[in-house]
Amino acid sequence: MIERTPAANAVTYAIMTLALGSVLLPFWIVFCASTQSLQAVNAVPFSFLPGGEMLANYANAWDRGDLGTALFNSFAMAALVTGGKIAVSALSAFAIVYFRSSWGTVFFWLVFMTLMLPLEVRVVPTYNIAADAFQPIRLLVQTLTGIEVSVEWNLLNSYSGLTLPLVATATGTFLFRQFFMTVPDELAEAARMDGSGPWRFFVDILLPLSRTNMLALATILFADTWNQYLWPKLMVTDPAYRTAQTALGALIPSPDGAPQWNVTMAGALLVVLPPLIVVAVLQRWFVRGLIVTEK
Questions:
Q1: Would you say 108 and 176 are in contact if contact means Cβ atoms under 8 Å apart?
Q2: Contact residues for 104 (Cβ-Cβ < 8 A; gap 6+)
Q3: Which domains does the chain have, with CATH numbers?
Q4: Residue 138: predicted pLDDT
Q5: Rounded to two decimals, what is the model's pTM?
Q6: What crossing angle do the helices spanning 211-226 and 261-281 adopt, rounded to 10°?
């Protein structure tokens, strides 16, 4: 049993205050830099007080980076990938847990092994398929029948190219599988006796029970997808589909230009705000999904 004493409480609060300060200090520096003039942000020593160029810097960053379109594309990408990952993970975990098969464990471990292959490792073959999605089908048809098929499907510069290759996730499948295994078998048996089919049992019983888990997973997936840089950088060359992370490159000056760090910091702060808002709104559900199990 932990005994609460004034000394222990003081040490605890001191550690928490120090941790909070270390987390908030970078954001305060970025905010101050985004409100200062070019001369002030490059001055030594740096001033930790806000300046008077806030509106001008944010307007400049918004226009130069076309952040309105970029933020919409990032939100669409993050929302679609998050929804797709949750749907695919829940369905795959449901099939592995409730459809009894001798191959269920094998399929699960094959999916789980993909955790060892991050996007950076499989980016080249994934990009090759995304550039020509029908290539495997053409090769299969040609191998089996000898007939050459000329159908092509290019996913570059499209929302499907930004989202579809990122939808599958072993992490989500693992989390849903672990939760479904904690659901009592009597619940599935009672639903079967009441005439409930697999789909109705999944929609009406399992999904409501896993609501907190889904929201906790959605919080992580949304922030992770929002911060994707490598994949959007490879898939998009059309500025109309550029995401917020890649749009920040437009705020970086050319090698012979003066670094406008005040404008760059303003753009960075605008880009980081949406995931912070999502995490703040879903914070309560995120914590409950980690520590609470609803039955």
A1: no
A2: 95, 96, 97
A3: 6-291 (1.10.3720.10)
A4: 75
A5: 0.84
A6: 170
Paired tokens of 283? 């914070």
Contacts of 152 (CB under 8 A, 6+ apart): 132, 134
Place of tokens 């999605």: 133
The C-alpha atoms of residue 27 and residue 283 are separated, in whole angstroms, by 19
pLDDT per position as a tens digit, 258-281: 778 889 999 999 999 999 898 888
What mean pLDDT value characterizes the chain?
84
Closest to 163 measured CA to CA, from 154, 155, 172, 173: 155
Among the ranges 74-88, 146-160, 176-190, 237-251, which has the highest mean pLDDT value? 74-88
Structure tokens given for 69: 């379109």
- DSSP assigned state of 282: T
Extract the tokens encoding 127.
Answer: 């990009």
Closest CA to 168 of 209, 208, 225: 225
Phi, psi of 174, rounded to the nearest 5 degrees:
-65, -45
**121-164 pLDDT per residue, tens:** 788 888 888 888 777 777 777 777 877 767 667 888 889 989 98
Using an 8 Å Cβ cutoff, are 51 and 30 in contact?
no
Please tell me the distance from the alpha carbon of residue 213 to that of residue 206, in angstroms, as a whole number: 11
C-alpha 219/C-alpha 23 separation (Å) is 19
Q: In this structure, is the dihedral angle defined by the CA atoms of residues 274, 276, 279 and 282, taken in order, positive or negative?
A: negative
Tens digits of per-residue pLDDT, 201-242? 898 888 888 888 888 889 889 999 999 888 899 888 888 999
